[in-house]
Amino acid sequence: MPIRVLDPQLVARIAAGEVVERPASVVKELVENSLDAGSSQISVEVRGGGVSLIRVMDNGSGIPSAEIELAFDRYATSKIGSVDDLESISSLGFRGEALPSIAAVAQVDIVTRAADESAGTYLSLQDGKVVNRESQGRSQGTTVTVKNLFRKVPARLKFLKSLATENSHMANVVSRYALAFPEVKFALFIDGRATLRTPGSGRLIDSIIEVYGLDVAQNMLEIEAERWEGRPAISSPQVTGMVGSPSISRSNRDYLSLFVNRRWTNSRLLAWAVEEAYHGLLMQGKHPVAIINISLSPGEVDVNIHPTKTEVKFHHEHAVFSAVQKAVRQALIKLMPVPKIEEVATAYGAPSVPGQGLPLSAEADSRLIPSSPVTAPTPAVTLPALRILGQLSSSYIIAEGPDGLYLIDQHAAHERILFEKIKDQRSRQAVEVQGLLEPVTFEVSPQQEAVLKSQCANLAEFGFSIEPFGERTFLVRAVPALLSGKDWAGMVRELLDSGGDKGDWREKIAISMACHSAVKAGQVLTDDEMRELVRQLEQIAIPHTCPHGRPTMIHLSLGQLRKEFGRS
Ligand code: ADP
Ligand code: MG
Prior knowledge:
With about 575 residues, the protein is of the alpha+beta class. It has 3 domains: about 10-200, 2-Layer Sandwich (Heat Shock Protein 90); about 220-335, Ribosomal Protein S5, domain 2 (2-Layer Sandwich); about 340-568, MutL, C-terminal domain, dimerisation subdomain (formyl-coa transferase, domain 3), CATH 3.30.1540. The protein has helices at about 10-20, 25-35, 70, 100-105, 155-160, 165-180, 205-210, 215, 270-275, 315-335, 410-425, 445-460, 490-495, 505-515, 525-540, 560-565, and strands at about 40-45, 55-60, 105-115, 120-125, 130-135, 140-145, 185-190, 195, 220, 240-245, 255-260, 265, 290-295, 300, 315, 385-390, 395-400, 405-410, 435-445, 465-470, 475-480, 555. It is elongated and about 95 Å long. The chain binds adenosine-5'-diphosphate and magnesium ion.
């Protein structure tokens, strides 16, 4: 075939593929336009997996009658005007590609009315061309209706997944923006059924309740705005939002929502920063629930990387990373409640007295009070001083605090204490070492040998003196004092079997040492031993979980006791 210039309709369709990958992309672009138009109400209706119909209705600025056709031209936008503007994008859209792209792969109707116009305008497009225009009544705002998506692009249609999958992608888009814009009232209807409604109250927690439910919302901790000493640096990123307590962690990353200047992004860097902040608080394979927005001056971030605008690049990556990590970590440490025993006695049919002794947070509005009483998380800065009452089942320490009863898992608590101690000693290069009277030979499998060779130096930092001694044999001259008399050989074997280059080895060694040297469940402790353990626990910054992320204690407050016993 000779070289020739493609026909414009074909060009438009090819280009549209970049922006409109699936029905959820249409929802995303239209919702972004509604948000850019300053809407306070956005309603999204979809049918047939978004292929039959997508309709987005808003009460925003509307498009002036004289400009509607232009809005459907490629690269036509009201949001930027010069190359310089690219440096300071504060709107979600700016490329002027969405409307023409959608019109290239679907049938589009629009009704819009700008503030100062007396009537609305209706425009209908087929194959990107206007086929009808008339005046129509409408209050201020815009409604875009997209029908028969990809009907003329069979390749795309074939690539779409089941209705349920496409519906979930579209719901995901609306949910994320509902979380990013709590002041906007969102509604989503899927095949006529209302699946999401947010109140538009401006409070993030209200959006979280609607998107994730009350159970998650009750376990969210607010990221406190950083208090500035002096004036904030212009370029300092501000981190706001809410993070879930480790108790509501999930097995995938879908519950992590990251926004940059309220643009939803899938930045790996930011996800990593958040997960780093949860380090040591989550069980393996678990991921946090978090909704985080990073505000920074538009010049500090480049969003013009890809037509879908979900990728971002930061000019000062490192500053953003550490701001996020620090803010999340602080929220977790400051506010992490000791897990509470909820409704212990319900199984015995104790009368429940709604609301009794359970202060609902001042913000909660009566509409949100569920039928069962909600326990507001008690901020526990550190552990209060505790009085030991006894030991249960040779495994749990029972203690009394200023507000009720604490049950402490002796093994988990001791693990946390030792883990902190081991890390601290290593970083100060002050590990206590126990030399062995006679060097001990240590035989390993070929796989273990490879790992051990590569980890000798790391192990040495923790007090293990291990050197090669012939084929698949090592000589151990010293071990950490903590492990003397314990099964250190078993510990090292376990560590070597845990995989070669996976994970942070220093962390793994510290966890493993803590686990092997901590008191076991089933071990009888004297009162003095329990007191000492609790005293050490009181001094730890994050006393509430063990290094594997399991809770070290549960708390039954006096309020809950009163409730359970039906007193008031
Ligand atoms: P972009 O959002 O990148 O500017 P679009 O193709 O999405 O490009 O939209 C083109 C223009 O149409 C926008 O710049 C805006 O002026 C106008 N527009 C689109 N949707 C709306 C809406 N819901 N309300 C008001 N104006 C809109
Ligand atoms: Mg747009």
